[in-house]
Amino acid sequence: MQECNGGSCSSCEQNGNCSARTNKVPAHELSHIKNVIAVMSGKGGVGKSFVTSSLAVAMAKRGKKVGILDADITGPSIPTAFGLHTQAYNDDNGILPVASKGGIKVISLNLLMPNETDPVIWRGPVIAGVVKQFWADVIWGELDYLFVDMPPGTGDVPLTVFQSLPVNGIVMITSPQDLVRKIVAKAVNMAKLMRVPLLGLVENYSYFACPDCGGRHEIFGPSTLDRVAEEFSIPVLGRIPVDPSFASHCDRGEIEDVSPNHLEAVAALLDSDEAK
Question: Do you find a cis peptide bond into 235, omega within 30 degrees of 0?
Fold first, then answer.
C-alpha cells in the first residue's frame, strides 16, 4: 500500500489509483468540505474541546467557513462552550447542524438528545456508527474547515474517524508534564498507522501569567514540549496559558468572546499554503 500524504486527493499523483483511502465514507451529497482537521489528545483533562472551539473561532475570524463535528459522543462539551441548546433537526435531505452566533456549524449528540444531561450508555460500535452519521448524514454545506473534536485516547472513535473520514491532519493537545512523551508517542504511532500527518502540538496550561507581578509561573512544572517535539520531529504550534476567564466564558457559552485568542497564529499557520 503506497503512502498517503493526507492532503487533497485531486492534487495527488496517485489519484484514481490509491488504496490508502478506499474505505472512506462519502460525505452528504450537499456537503462540500475542503479540509478535515482532527483535534486529538492522548488523555483527558487537557482542554481538547477548548482548543478545538478556540481554533474554530480563530479560523472563522479569518473569514473561513467552519464547522465542528463533536466526536466525543459520551462527553460532549462543544455545544455548552458555544451556548447552543436548541436541537438539531432533520429535513427531507438530512440532519442540519446548529450554527453559533459567529456562524460556526456544530453537530453534537447533545444537540440531538431530548435532555442534555441524559447519559449515553452505548457500546463502541454504536458510538462509532453515530460518528459516521455525523459525517455522512449531516448537511454541512460549503466548509473550508471541519474540526473534529475527538475523545481522548486511541480507541474506537479515533480509529473510526481516521478510517472513515478524509482527515488532512491531526493537531495534538498536550500539557506540561513528563508523561507527555508517552502520550505523544502513542499519537505519533497511530498517525503513522492511519497515514495521517501530525500537524503539530499545542500545549495547554503552559504557564500562568500573574496579573499583579506580570511574571510567568509554570504551575504544572517545567514544560517538556520542546524536547518532545524535537524527539518526534513535530512542530510546536502554540502554547496556551492558564486563565480562569477561559473557563468562565465556556461556562456561559461565550467562547467566541474569549480575548485574546491564543490560537490565532495557529489558525493562520494551518490556513497557509505551507501547511497544505
Answer: no
**pLDDT tens digit string along 31-81?**
999 999 999 987 788 889 999 999 999 999 999 999 999 999 988 999 999
Q: What's domain 25-270's architecture? A: 3-Layer(aba) Sandwich (3.40)
pLDDT in tens, 149-172: 999 888 889 999 999 999 999 999
Q: How many CB atoms neighbour CB 108 within 10 A?
A: 26
* Total residues found in the chain within this entry: 276
Burial of 3 from C-beta contacts in 10 A (0-12 / 13-18 / 19+)? exposed
Separation of alpha carbons 201 and 183, rounded Å: 12
Domain ranges of the chain: 25-270
pTM of the complete model: 0.88
The neighbour count for residue 215, using CB atoms within 10 Å, is 9
Rounded Cα distance, 231 and 228, in Å? 5
